[in-house]
Amino acid sequence: MSSFTASGKNNRAKLYNQVATGLFYALGIAVLMLIFWLLYTILSKGLPGITLEFLMKVPEEMDTGGGIGTVLFNSFYILILSLLISVPIGVGAGIYMAEYAPANRFTEGLRMCVESLSSVPSIVFGLLGLAIFAEYFQVGLTILGGAVSLAFLNLPMLCRVTEEAIRDVPAELRNAAYALGTTKFQTIRTVVLPVALQAIITGICLVAGRAFGESAVIILTAGLSTSGEMWDFNLFSPGETLAVHLWYVQSEAIVEDASQIADKAAAVLVFVVLFINLVFRIPLWFNNRKLKK
Amino acid sequence: MSTPVQELAPVAGANILTASKKGRFDRYARVRFTNRLFQYLFLLCILALCVVLGLVIFFIGKTGILTFRDISLSDFFLSLDWTPEDGKFGAGAFIINTLLLTGLTLVIAVPISVGMAVLLVEISPMWFKRFVRPVLDLLVGIPSIVYGYLGLTVLIPLIREWTGENLGDGLLAAALVLSLMILPTICRVSDEAIAAVPKKYREAAYALGSTRLQVIMRVVLPAAKRGIVAAIILGMTRAIGETMAVVMVIGNTAQLADSLFTPTAVLTSNIVMQISNVEFDSTWNYALHMMAFLLLLISFLLIVVIRFISKRGGDRA
């Protein structure tokens, strides 16, 4: 049996293999450590200094001790408005692409549209919002303009995640529903959507996290200032968000404690994004575990 | 996988049931009405997406085209001189810088992210994969402005220390930040491409006595080539369009980058720095819109390339 003797070439190949395995692991661990170091740097610099007062207070132009109250409020306000606009349209479009779209040229064109739209750089959506709201409707830089432009940015991603979620629903479930004599829409409403709901919600959370931290669009459409009042629900006041405020504080602000504010703002930003992503994933993890058992 | 029955045979039964009650708006009619209604509503949604795309092209293109009323095509694309105060609008330097930055980013990011993808699919045990994938998702979740801020406050002081440069802003800082941002994108998509390589290819290679490294280099990576190229191009579209992270670390000076540490500017960073200071009806504004239109065209081109690659891959398989 053991007439095989390893030649020098065999030994070299084995040695290379072991070295490469080690290098791959080293690479992976280095990347992981880099990620954790990044998160640690952001959160450890900012989180300890955060007080409720900082979160609720209005930003200051001249004096130290300004907060991020109005910009944090604007961030959530614009995010919710943009989701209200984009979720029905994006999910509807995803349902069409997954359930109705026939396999023909027209559908290919639609798919091309969605892909092109998702590749449009965010700054271009900012310019579009600027052109529509500031130039065409002459309303200037407003919360409404920011929300609509952000909704444009969200649309293609929402469409894609919904389509993927719905395509994952097994066809047997649909057939069972059809066998009971339901129409296509009844099947979608009562069978397909409930099954796909969890994946769709996860997708919406990903989109929401991205939209919360988006700044290029908001700078151009909602501006670099706030109305200066807390709880300002007026759609036509300027709507600087937290991400934009981070940029403003870092590049243009003249207050002395700008760098502390920037540290804290960055920490809050990352914390909220992680929170949005994690909170809605936890039930998903539990469900997966249940299904596997 | 079974095919939904309604796609195989259109329902005729519903008509028999309702035929006798024609003209009455009863339950069957309502059900069929909402069925039809929502079909058109969903179609309307997807058409709305197309309208948004149309709006983008129309508004940006319309304003951008006006640039060429005042300056010639060759002045805009070939001249490196961007001094809007003197009426000189040469975008050549920005275009070259954008390409340089994207190239440098890919040189850094591609080996790392493809290496990570290989590690995840071929080498590491299952628990490692389960742990790493959500962590990479975290990386996607961090807002671009925070990357820029970290680059400004952590990376640039480090670069100053290592190289002895005064400023440290420039292509290298921007490329490092961008690499970190596109790493999860490239890693995730090439991960899928590598995992889609049929198991029998690997088994055949092992049966011939290959080591794992040989299997990876000579069988798996060549087989997954198309998917990995698509992943790289997808990362490219992100790198080209990224604005805020780049703005904070690139130095924002309108000149050609002659070294890795020269403060410079790319298409996106120049647009966002200048757009709020210009008049709507000025050549300056038109030129900035033209630059945005250029970005749009580059992204579309890359998307077409991805489609072309994956379609040919599909035919072969």
From TrEMBL, chain B:
Residues 95-307 form the ABC transmembrane type-1 domain. GO terms for cellular component: plasma membrane. Its main location: membrane. It is a multi-pass membrane protein. It is found in: Cell membrane. Signal peptide: none annotated. One of its GO terms (biological process) is phosphate ion transport. Keywords: Cell membrane, Membrane, Phosphate transport, Transmembrane, Transmembrane helix, Transport. GO terms for molecular function: phosphate transmembrane transporter activity. The chain crosses the membrane at residues 37-60, 94-123, 135-159, 171-190, 227-250, 286-309. Belongs to the binding-protein-dependent transport system permease family. CysTW subfamily. PANTHER family: PHOSPHATE TRANSPORT SYSTEM PERMEASE PROTEIN PST (PTHR30425), PHOSPHATE TRANSPORT SYSTEM PERMEASE PROTEIN PSTC (PTHR30425:SF1). Part of the binding-protein-dependent transport system for phosphate; probably responsible for the translocation of the substrate across the membrane. This is Phosphate transport system permease protein. It comes from Paenibacillus alvei TS-15.
